Amino acid sequence: MYSHHSHSGEYVAHGVDKLDDMVARANEMGFELYCLTEHMPRLDSKYLYPEEKTGRTESDLETLQQKFRKFMDHALTIKRHSHGAKIIIGMEVEGCDSQHIAYAKSLMEQYPDVLQFCVGSVHHVNEIPIDFNQDMWTEAVKVAGNNFKQFMIDYLNMQYKLLTELKPLVVGHFDLFKLLCPQRLCVNTQTGDIIDEGSPGAKCIQQLSILHEWEDVESLVVRNLQYIISYGGLIEINTAGLRKKLLDPFPGREFAILAKSMGARFVLSDDAHAVSHVGVCYDKALKYMDEVLRLQELHYLSDNSGSLEIKSVTIDSLKKSPFWENY
Predict the structure, then answer these.
(1) pLDDT by residue (tens digit) across 158-217?
(2) 62 torsion bin: left (phi>0), alpha (psi -120 to 50), beta (else)
């Protein structure tokens, strides 16, 4: 089994457990590949999360730098002594703005013997985190004119900037913008404005097919997917969506089925932030890949003497893995 995206409490403030314990759990479960991908450091205090702030801005930013350097050293030690899962080291990119995307590129160039790939993710829209809590998500939507369609457009345009400037090998949680969307959020389907339930033209966002409702949003999704496919990128099926009580992993079925129809390749990730998250909901993800997406194969990374290769396994073969005895 494989995971291409993980974190630990040692190197990210919203994580829980030690990196060694995360890897030990992956070994215990029988993972063949476990990628270590802590967040790259952020450069601007406006992107610090509440739990990272001590009131000393320069010190807080330097702490992120120190943690990342320690992570790379620690991950290398784990990789050299690993007797279970194969370890590939990467980082998760903070696609906040052009400065951070350029910094991500420089980190990849500076540490080629450590960072073998990156997970390209967007966690901020209009400089506001969209996956931290409900208040921040709501504020990000307000900055987009309190318009859900514009919010998605802003997200997809930032994602496209990340894709074109960095070309991340793995694209993280493609449709993260939906994570904290309230169940009863209503929009005007003509404009995308958020309005009260019961207002003329109001429709619950959960009842909408986003791609069919708004052609301009669909065109941006198609554009982003086409670009990922053009440079050989991989889209992760990220089970954190299931862990956080969404119907599907990331990307949800509407986006994943479209990506499949265009020829996209998928990898699997648990996006673990704690020992209890390792391999979480993989049984549900298998059902999603097999019965909902009807995938024929799943891809994964392989380290061939320091050079990464992309390999695949059929879903039928995956089903026969002893890994599923964990569930």
Answers:
(1) 999 999 999 999 999 999 999 999 988 999 999 999 999 888 878 998 888 999 999 999
(2) alpha
Which residues make Cβ contacts (< 8 Å) with residue 289, sequence separation at least 6? 237, 266, 268, 295, 298, 315
Q: What is the DSSP letter of 38?
A: P
Question: What is the Cα–Cα distance from 110 to 7, expressed in whole angstroms?
Answer: 21
**What predicted TM-score, i.e. pTM, was given to this entire model?**
0.96
**Residue 42 to residues 64, 91, 110, Cα–Cα distance (Å):** 7, 12, 16
- CA 91 to chain CA centroid, Å, is 11
**Spatial contact of 118 and 165, defined as CB atoms under 8 Å apart:** no
Please tell us whether the domain made up of 2-140+165-176+233-326 is placed in CATH 3.20.20.140. yes
* DSSP annotation of 133: -
β partners of residue 188:
202
